[in-house]
Amino acid sequence: MFATFLVGLREGLEAVLVVSILVAFLVKTDQRRYLPHVWGGVAVAVALSIGAGAALQYGSTKLSFTGQERFEAITSVLAVAFVTWMIFWMRVAAKRIAAHLREQLSEAIGMGPFAVVLIAFLAVVREGLETALILYSMVDFAENPAASLGAAGGGIAVAIVIGFGLYHGAIRVNFTRFFTWTGVLLIFVAAGLLKYGVHDFQEAGDLPGLNDIAFDVSAVFPPGTWYAEVLSGMFNLTPTPTVVETIAWAAYLVPVLVLFLLPRRSPRQAPAPVPAPSGEKSE
């Protein structure tokens, strides 16, 4: 539940920030007449995202056992790709996203109301579709899918409240620190999703080694205990993983975590001109 809450909070806050930037720009430039178009684009994006999640759930139930395992494995790998792209993209784009959105919206206003709707739709639908795919992959292996979805909804609700407070100046958030810590947690979540996807590929017969167990720590983390359930639900850590699962988990987690935590290089400044020696004319 905490993992899906984290995904809902992170994705929800990104979407809320985008919408608040668009709304604030229209209000400050005295162009409130376009606010209904922004909210219309947001509503269409939300509806499409919910529909995509429902379609994934419905489509998977129509497959055979092998087909369902393969489908769930593919969606898990896609979810890992989206999570990885999301955390690295936000790490780079966070400082310039506001200026970029304002520029796009300004151009859209010059083109007409439909362009404003489209800008708002495209700004939100990416987050919504990512959320639908990631949550489908995570809820699929949850013991209580309804509770996991409820936790995700709670995360989105908290994001909306935070966004409302930010817009009205009641809340201040250190977004650099927030996105860094949630990014680290999501890398662990993504590693667990990849491990789950690899296991599904093994179940479908696409990868070997289903019965080759890497280690057995069931004596330390007995199934049913609260701490074993937390580790399983949050990071998909199981007491008897296969060798291939374990290799995939470590091969993703270690390099991605190192790359994410590496300090970013500040842009190099041009060297200051060297003053001409006394007695010589500088050019």
UniProtKB/TrEMBL annotation:
Source species, domain of life: Bacteria
InterPro entries linked to this entry: FTR1/Fip1/EfeU (IPR004923)
Membrane topology summary: Multi-pass membrane protein
Keyword line: Membrane, Transmembrane, Transmembrane helix
GO MF annotation, one: ferrous iron transmembrane transporter activity
Location relative to the cell: Membrane
Transmembrane residue ranges: 6-26, 38-59, 71-93, 105-125, 145-166, 178-198, 243-262
Cellular compartments per GO CC: high-affinity iron permease complex
Pfam families: FTR1
Record family assignment: Belongs to the oxidase-dependent Fe transporter (OFeT) (TC 9.A.10.1) family.
Protein name: FTR1 family protein
